[in-house]
């Protein structure tokens, strides 16, 4: 994944959307999670990464995918690449794990947690859909 993404970002002229990722760290080693350098390069190209809801992307020791871990990843990605490079990549159709946010009817849990962390309405809208929509529109031009 790392080599492929670096290759993509080296010649990609327009934005791209990495739909199901998280941030890499010393304690989370998932092959689809992004390093800080990758996040920065993606943001510089106007791209977006979608936070995956699976616990293995968020916290290697958790048996359940928690909203607090999703928000932690979102905050980190925003701190590196800005509010415009993060979205949600729920992967509801591909996760066979226990989830705190089990389906779309529970998405308000994430909204509430983001508000509690100081995210503004316009930032939450970007995270929930506007960032991905911007990239899709740019790619389809």
Describe the protein.
The protein is built from six helices and five strands, in the order αβαβαβαββαα. The chain is of the alpha/beta class. Helix 4 (67-81) packs across helix 5. The two termini are 27 Å apart. Residues 23-28 have low confidence and may be disordered.
Shape estimate: globular
Structural class comes to: alpha/beta
Could you spell the SSE succession in H and E letters? HEHEHEHEEHH
Most strands sheet: 3 strands, parallel
Total number of helical segments? 6
CATH topology: TIM Barrel
What's the CATH architecture name?
Alpha-Beta Barrel
Which CATH class? Alpha Beta
| Main sheet strand line-up | 1-2-4
Name the poorly predicted regions: 23-28
Strand coverage percent: 5-15%
Query: What's the average pLDDT?
Result: 79
What is the element layout, followed by pairings?
Elements: H1 2-11, E1 17-21, H2 36-44, E2 48-52, H3 55-58, E3 64-65, H4 67-81, E4 86-89, E5 98-99, H5 108-116, H6 121-140
Parallel strand pairs: 1-2, 2-4, 3-5
Helix pairs in contact: 4-5
Quick synopsis:
With 141 residues, the protein is an alpha/beta fold. 48% of the residues lie in helices and 13% in strands. The protein has a single domain, classed as TIM Barrel, CATH 3.20.20.140.
């Amino acid at each position: 994944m790392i080599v492929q993404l670096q290759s993509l970002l080296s010649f990609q002229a327009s934005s791209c959307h990495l739909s199901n990722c998280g941030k890499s760290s010393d304690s989370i080693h998932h092959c689809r999670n992004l390093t800080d350098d990758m996040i920065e390069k993606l943001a510089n190209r106007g791209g977006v990464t979608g936070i995956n809801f699976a616990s293995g992307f968020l916290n290697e020791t958790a048996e359940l995918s928690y909203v607090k871990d999703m928000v932690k990843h979102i905050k980190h990605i925003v701190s590196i690449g800005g509010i415009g490079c993060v979205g949600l990549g729920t992967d509801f159709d591909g996760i066979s794990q226990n989830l705190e946010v089990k389906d779309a009817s529970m998405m308000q849990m994430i909204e509430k947690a983001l508000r509690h962390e100081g995210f503004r309405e316009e930032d939450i809208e970007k995270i929930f859909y506007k960032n991905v929509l911007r990239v899709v529109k740019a790619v389809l031009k």
